[in-house]
């Protein structure tokens, strides 16, 4: 299935030169003058080689036909990350290299999209927004304005996030998994 390059997201699987690649990172650049481009970092599934490509945002890219289903995260052990398909209760183990940069986002009971090709897990897509608890933050510097100043904080999953000055330790926040950015305070 052909899709435009600007619609590619982390976790998508594309086919180039009859090989499958999983998208690790996709950024669209819109310069003031000239053609907008989408820069994509990918990992070749067959041998793990990382590749970078750049397309015009309107270029057509072949999105691979892989089996994509919801799975619930169960637990992590020495074998890898264990997921269960909620309808069939079928369990699969995802290795560390397939998890990639998604490891800190996965929480117990979380529903994710797991992509498999011929029964083998090849890519995982986590929700775009997750809720985490702030474990520690740096103190507010006197004189900072509340409107646009952010301070570094450490979340319960180990990520470093920039948060507004009013967020303190113990506060639950929602972060964007694409770029680890603060979205809002959790409403729970």
UniProtKB/TrEMBL annotation:
Residue ranges of every copy of the Translation elongation factor P/YeiP central domain listed in the record: 68-122
Key words of the record: Cytoplasm, Elongation factor, Protein biosynthesis
InterPro entries in the cross-refs: Elong-fact-P_C (IPR015365), NA-bd_OB-fold (IPR012340), Rib_uL2_dom2 (IPR014722), Transl_elong_fac_P/YeiP (IPR020599), Transl_elong_KOW-like (IPR013185), Transl_elong_P/YeiP_cen (IPR001059), Transl_elong_P/YeiP_CS (IPR013852), Transl_elongation_fac_P (IPR011768)
Keyword match Protein biosynthesis: yes
A Pfam entry, by short name: EFP_N
Entry's localization field: Cytoplasm
The Elongation factor P C-terminal domain, residue ranges: 130-185
GO MF, any single term: translation elongation factor activity
Signal peptide (residue range): none
TM region(s), chain numbering: none
Pathway assigned to this chain's UniProt record: Protein biosynthesis; polypeptide chain elongation
Main location: cytoplasm
Family: Belongs to the elongation factor P family.
Function field: Involved in peptide bond synthesis. Stimulates efficient translation and peptide-bond synthesis on native or reconstituted 70S ribosomes in vitro. Probably functions indirectly by altering the affinity of the ribosome for aminoacyl-tRNA, thus increasing their reactivity as acceptors for peptidyl transferase.
Protein name per its UniProtKB record: Elongation factor P
The organism of origin for this protein: Pseudogemmobacter lacusdianii
Gene it is expressed from: efp
């Amino acid at each position: 299935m052909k899709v435009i390059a600007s619609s590619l997201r982390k976790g998508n699987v594309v086919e180039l030169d009859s090989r499958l690649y999983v998208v690790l990172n996709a950024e669209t650049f819109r310069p003031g003058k000239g053609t907008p481009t989408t820069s994509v970092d990918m990992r070749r599934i067959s041998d793990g080689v990382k590749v970078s490509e750049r397309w015009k945002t309107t270029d057509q890219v072949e999105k691979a036909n892989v089996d994509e289903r919801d799975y619930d995260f169960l637990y992590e052990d020495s074998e890898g990350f264990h997921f269960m398909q909620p309808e069939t209760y079928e369990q699969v183990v995802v290795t560390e290299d397939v998890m990639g940069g998604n490891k800190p986002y996965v929480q117990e009971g979380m529903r994710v999209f797991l992509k498999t090709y011929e029964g083998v897990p090849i890519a995982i897509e986590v929700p775009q927004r997750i809720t985490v608890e702030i474990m520690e933050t740096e103190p507010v510097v006197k004189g900072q304005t509340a409107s646009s100043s952010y301070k570094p904080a450490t979340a319960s999953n180990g990520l470093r996030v920039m948060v507004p000055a009013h967020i303190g330790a113990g506060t639950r926040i929602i972060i964007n998994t694409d770029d680890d950015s603060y979205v809002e305070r959790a409403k729970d």
